[in-house]
Amino acid sequence: MEIRGKRILVLGGWGQVGSSICREALEEGPAQIVVCSLEKWQTEDALKQLRLEFPESSTDLAGEWGDVFARYDSKDASRRDLMTDPESRRILVDDLICELKTDLVHATFLYRVIERHRPHIIIDCINLATVFAYRDVYSSTRQLLRALDGADEGEPLKGLVEAHLANAYIPQLIRHVQVLYNSMLECNTRCYVKIGTSGTGGMGLNVPYTHSEEKPSRVLLAKSAIAGAHSLLLFLMARTPESPIIKEIKPTAAIAWKKIAYGPVERGGKPVSLFPLEMSDAISLEGKFQLPPSKALSKKLESLEPGTLESVYIDTGENGVFSLGEFEAITSMGQMEYVTPEEIALNVIFEIKGGNTGKDVIAALDQACMGPTFRAGALRDSALASMRKLEQEHEVDSVAFENLGPPKLSKILFESYLLKRTYGTMQAVAQASPEELQDRVCQELESDSDLRSRIISIGIPILLSDGTRLLRATQVKVPHPDAELGVSPERIDLWAHDGWIDLRLSNFELWRSRFQQIIDETEAIPFNDTSSRYERNREYWFQEPTIQPGKVASWLFINEEKGLRMKH
Question: In this structure, how many other beta carbons lie within 10 angstroms of the beta carbon of residue 421?
């Protein structure tokens, strides 16, 4: 797409990749670039640098800061503070596991940023996989197990359970993708580019760069697993109608560099302290090794006046600062080697403009995946014919078992089947009154106990015509156990819509309009058009003399549920 005149949001815009992308994008003349970073000073620093480098640019430069994975009202709070406060921690857990609703999406900082600026293009440079993986579900599991074994009497068990749940990788990832997708859809974002990661800098399971864990590190592989899951969720997003254009550039090497300098060496945003210990301060190795310093050693360290580690370093952005030796080792041939942020930025801009770099992971997955085949299509009619023949031999109709899901599918299949049994064709249904449809379907169910049993026994209840009584068996698929179970007219409407056979008059009015719409669509096809343009033509709908519930269900899922497959 054209970048000139567009609004661009760069998440992680202060980092080395984000900064390079902002510079490259400014060359294209966008209307606005919004730099979003975790900290206020980062955003301000990035904007200051861009204004110095592009003093003549007419592009509006704006800034946002905060945690894009948090609610708006806690965007500036540290994760540690949220996790130690019982009320905030419980909100974190609830936000991950509850049903996604509009008010939750609107409460997030990410939505607020997208809604405020309504970007045409979002470029996401945040290393999500690292953020989630280093919340470290392994550590929270160990703490929880120690507490269950009675070995840890410090933190109450409730707090440890909540902390463990809040660290769960997959719920965090899924909720983020849901919020992102809904926010972009609501605000009409047209292109989203993710700067992803392999988690190992392009190396395999033998990657030697870990933080003293086993090789390969569980935490490091969690990072790779999250990155892979993220790519597949973006792949699905790219296959969703009305979704923005989705792309992912996934560097598989170390990324460097932002600057080379001499000065204080920082870790986690804080200078590394230098402790002037003497050789005589060595501790004895006996008994159980304690990771935290002993009381005696702690007292000794507190009495010292530590200095600050200063040296020559190379700043690799999100990965921190490396010494000459570390940088030389990691970028050597046969190790991670490295790629520059400018090269990544060039690929991103080229892809947004419609170029084909060959580096878009989503396009690569599209090309590599095995989709529907000609052979399967040729055999489909044979499979359906065999099943219909067996139906006749055994004098049974194979309608729904509720093994495929969702319950609405079984509901639709059985409701259209009931109309087939009572009226035969869509035309006959469309010509009857809702009252006539209701009366005959209710009589059919009243007279056929086997049919009733087949419906309710798979978990699909039957809501009777008065709307106040329900015929059900042991199991019901709707409502879901997590749903609010208080009965009200609104909830009855919702449950009937989602998975109950609905014998109320309004539902028969709906079925009349559905069949009339199918008939109208079919009749609108010119009689002299025998081309391949129309998939659901007269032959498709009317080659069989009666209603075909499976065909009807697929039409409803495409038109009412917006469940159209984009790519074949």
Answer: 17
- Tell me if residue 39 falls in helix, strand or coil: coil
In the numeric block, the tokens 């294209």 are attached to 28
For the record, the structure tokens of 186 come out as 């609501």
Predicted confidence at residue 154, as pLDDT, reads 58
HSE-CB at 568 with a 13 A cutoff on CA atoms is: 5
* Crossing angle (nearest 10°) for helices 489-499 and 407-423: 80
295, 341 contact by CB (below 8 A): no
**pLDDT score of 214 more than 90:** no
The torsion of the CA quartet 225, 229, 232, 233, rounded to 10 degrees, works out to -160
Q: Does 284 have pLDDT greater than 70?
A: yes
Distances (CA, A) of 375 to 93, 318, 368, 388: 47, 49, 19, 21
Cα separation, 67 vs 358, in Å, equals 32
The pair of three-digit structure tokens given for residue 447, joined into one six-digit string? 């007279």
Q: Which fold has domain 7-80+99-136+165-258+337-368?
A: Rossmann fold (3.40.50)
Percent of the chain with pLDDT over 90: 84
Please state, as a whole number, how many other Cβ atoms lie within 10 Å of the Cβ of residue 109: 22
Beta bridge partners of 471: 462
User: Distance (Å, rounded) from C-alpha 245 to C-alpha 523?
Assistant: 35
245 pLDDT above the threshold of 70: yes
Give the pLDDT of residue 452.
Answer: 97
pLDDT at 281: 86
Question: Domain boundaries in the chain?
Answer: 7-80+99-136+165-258+337-368, 260-276+293-330, 387-559
Residues near 118 by Cβ (< 8 Å), separated by ≥ 6? 7, 187, 188, 189
Closest CA to 230 of 184, 197, 204, 202: 197
Residues 6 or more apart whose CB falls under 8 angstroms from that of 166 comprise 83, 89, 92, 93, 96, 135
- The two beta strands, 191-195 and 245-249, are parallel
* Per-residue pLDDT, 429: 97
Which residues, including other chains, have CB under 8 Å from residue 232's CB and lie 6 or more apart? 365
| DSSP 8-state symbol, 76 | T
Instruction: Give dist(CA 476, CA 295) in Å, integer.
Output: 60
Look at strands 259-264 and 462-463 and give their pairing: unpaired
Cβ burial of 442 (10 Å; 0-12, 13-18, 19+) is middle
Q: Can you give the pLDDT at residue 318?
A: 78
Query: Which whole-number Å values give the CA distances from 339 to 16, 32, 45, 331, 347, in the listed order?
Result: 12, 28, 24, 9, 12
**pLDDT tens profile 124-180:** 999 999 999 999 999 999 988 988 887 665 568 899 999 999 999 999 999 999 999
Residue 179: per-residue pLDDT: 98
CA 292 to centroid of chain Cα atoms: 39
Percentage above 70 pLDDT, the chain: 99
**Against a cut of 0.85, is the pTM above it?**
yes
Residues in CB range of 97: below 8 A, 6 or more apart: 165, 171
Residue 57, sorted as left (phi over 0), alpha (psi -120 to 50) or beta, turns out to be beta
Does the pLDDT value for residue 212 go beyond 80? no
